[in-house]
């Protein structure tokens, strides 16, 4: 599959994900959901918190750290915010019974817990989740979102980081502002999760996928390492991971994080080489966007999805880890 076809296929998959009519049909439980259910299970851990904890316990037993996120879309309804908060509080209560308390990070977008309604609401909800997680020995890492939300997300993080040690933040290497944002976050001493960045942003705001982006990522990783903080390098880029290893940036308090179902054998090999590894899993019923985004990242996996539909027995949870 040549690069032009991959680019066009990725654009098509992102278009499907962004189409509100398709998303609505998915939520209504039509044949679209049923058809995609099997291949999506390669990436989605479970439909409910209890099953997600049970399954991630299997990965923890193999020596992985784990992360969990309740999948959803941007929320503008207060009742839905309360429902999502309840999902996380339920998950937190289940963690000790699954033996995952101190092995687990919870991850979520602030846009799913009230940021689009009011930043103060998102801060209140997140504060309650962080406090509950602290009681069970769990950690919370805030995800980063589109450029217009960055200031509000960082504001919520700094407000909560002042009084909670079990909170971290995600930074996007491709944003031109991130080197300056990193200075402020490093002063908190909290954990940082570094990603390349996936949203379409204009050149004035962000670097495209390029060697320049890899150089910036490596420089930010170096600064995080020099600061001696806990740090997570969330990337599936084999060349970048090799560079981080070669530069000595994966020792001590560092980890490599990958999404569940993406390059499991690569993560397994890293773990066997002594690198601390985390599997980031998602659970819930509203997995349409997450699944299509995984396919868009590597359009050749559409063939794998079709094979999974034909033969569901190909998917064995944790089998490749």
UniProtKB/TrEMBL annotation:
<dbReference type="Pfam" id="PF01619">
    <property type="entry name" value="Pro_dh"/>
</dbReference>
<dbReference type="GO" id="GO:0006562">
    <property type="term" value="P:L-proline catabolic process"/>
</dbReference>
<feature type="domain" description="Proline dehydrogenase">
    <location>
        <begin position="54"/>
        <end position="286"/>
    </location>
</feature>
<protein>
    <submittedName>
        <fullName>Proline dehydrogenase superfamily, putative</fullName>
    </submittedName>
</protein>
<dbReference type="GO" id="GO:0004657">
    <property type="term" value="F:proline dehydrogenase activity"/>
</dbReference>
<keyword id="KW-0560">Oxidoreductase</keyword>
<dbReference type="InterPro" id="IPR002872">
    <property type="entry name" value="Proline_DH_dom"/>
</dbReference>
<dbReference type="InterPro" id="IPR029041">
    <property type="entry name" value="FAD-linked_oxidoreductase-like"/>
</dbReference>
């Amino acid at each position: 599959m040549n690069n032009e076809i991959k680019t066009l296929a990725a654009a098509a998959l992102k278009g499907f994900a962004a189409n509100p009519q398709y998303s609505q049909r998915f939520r209504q439980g039509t044949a679209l959901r049923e058809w995609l259910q099997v291949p999506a299970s390669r990436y989605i851990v479970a439909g409910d918190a209890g099953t997600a904890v049970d399954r991630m316990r299997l990965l923890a037993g193999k020596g992985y750290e784990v992360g969990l996120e309740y999948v959803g879309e941007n929320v503008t309804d207060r009742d839905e915010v309360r429902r999502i908060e309840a999902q996380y509080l339920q998950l937190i209560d289940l963690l000790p019974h699954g033996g995952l308390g101190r092995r687990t990070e919870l991850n979520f977008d602030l846009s799913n817990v009230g940021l689009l309604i009011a930043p103060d609401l998102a801060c209140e909800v997140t504060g309650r989740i962080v406090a509950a997680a602290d009681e069970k020995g769990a950690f919370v890492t805030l995800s980063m979102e589109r450029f217009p939300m960055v200031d509000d997300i960082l504001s919520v993080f700094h407000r909560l980081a002042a009084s909670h040690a079990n909170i971290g933040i995600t930074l996007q290497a491709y944003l031109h502002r991130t080197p300056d944002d990193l200075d402020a976050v490093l002063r908190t001493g909290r954990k940082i999760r570094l990603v390349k960045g996936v949203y379409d942003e204009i050149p004035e705001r962000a670097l495209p996928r390029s060697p320049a982006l890899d150089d910036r990522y490596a420089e930010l990783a170096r600064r995080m390492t020099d600061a001696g903080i806990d740090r997570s390098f969330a990337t599936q880029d084999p060349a970048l991971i090799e560079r981080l290893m070669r530069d000595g940036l994966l020792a001590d308090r560092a980890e490599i994080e990958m999404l569940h179902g993406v390059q499991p054998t690569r993560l397994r090999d890293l773990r066997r080489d002594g690198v601390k590894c985390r599997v980031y899993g998602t659970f819930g019923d509203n997995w349409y966007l997450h699944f299509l985004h995984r396919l868009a990242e590597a359009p050749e996996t559409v063939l794998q999805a079709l094979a999974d539909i034909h033969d569901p027995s190909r998917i064995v949870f944790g089998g490749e880890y």
